[in-house]
Amino acid sequence: MVVELVGARKTHQSFQTKHLLHNLIGIHTDIPAPDMGIGPQTMAWILDEYSKFHGYSPAVVTGKPTDLGGYLGRDAATGRGVPFATDALLNEYGKTIAGQRFVTQDDRSHEPSRTAKFLTFLAYSSMLMNIAVENANETKAIFITEAANHPTDQEADEKGVVILPDIKANSGGVTVSYFEWVQILVFFVEHLLEFIKNLPYEEVQNIQGFMWDEEKVNNELRNYMTKGFKDVKEMCKTHDCDLRMGAFTLGVNCVARATFLRGWEA
């Protein structure tokens, strides 16, 4: 295991030095976060390599180990956000999670149609198009949550089932990454170093303790996932569209408004 970790680190060092550290990532540009096959250890390596060239920069990556300023709860945030978003969806239809019949599909080797005939809610957490045209007509679920990226194809999407799209349903991880980034950016990068020069050790520790605990992180995640769904739903009402189109329209509109206000032209 140790040999594998050393080899993996050398690979990341070479790649980052040539392609990432000076051109693509930075605390105010593009902030890497974990994804499939990439965890806190890799984030720690990226942080270390970037800091060699730019000074200690804990805000340059998220999903770090907690010992390096990572957030408690970040590793589970993507999965935890799914029921938060699902609960907001069900509330819109006068329902709650309690009492619903759920199936979670997380392996392509399973047959969705065998279980989807008898349930209220189907949650897909495996990769890419588990609900395809050949079994779309057999899926009897009233609601589908896309806990993975793009697990339903277009034909299944058009079947009339209420689908909570991936761009909303599995955004819990990137939401908590935002919490981690912005708090580190404000305190550790912009203020802490100035405070350290004049404050006693005990007060410096208090400043570091500004970071939220796991309960606070989870509560704020629920708030963001709930509000995000409500914003998407309002966009759907405005444009008479489904949740997927509403989510994309909301995102594009946010970027477009910011671009317009800054004076940029197409």
Question: Secondary structure elements and their pairing?
Answer:
Layout: H1 2-20, H2 40-54, H3 77-92, E1 102-105, H4 112-116, E2 121-124, H5 133-136, E3 143-146, H6 154-157, E4 162-164, H7 166-169, H8 172-196, H9 201-208, H10 214-239, H11 243-261
Parallel strand pairs: 1-2, 2-3, 3-4
Helix pairs in contact: 1-2, 3-8, 3-10, 8-9, 8-10, 10-11
What would your notes on this structure say?
This protein is mostly helical. It has a domain at 79-170 and 212-266: Rossmann fold (3-Layer(aba) Sandwich). Helices cover 55% and strands 6% of the residues. It contains 11 helices and 4 strands. It has helices at residues 2-20, 40-54, 77-92, 112-116, 133-136, 154-157, 166-169, 172-196, 201-208, 214-239, 243-261, and strands spanning 102-105, 121-124, 143-146, 162-164. A 4-stranded parallel sheet has the order 1-2-3-4. β3, α6 and β4 form a beta-alpha-beta unit. α3 (77-92) packs across α10, α8 (172-196) crosses α10 (214-239) and α10 (214-239) crosses α11 (243-261). The longest helix has 26 residues, at 214-239. The chain is globular, with a radius of gyration of 21 Å. The termini are far apart. Residues 1-6, 108-119 and 203-207 have low confidence and may be disordered.
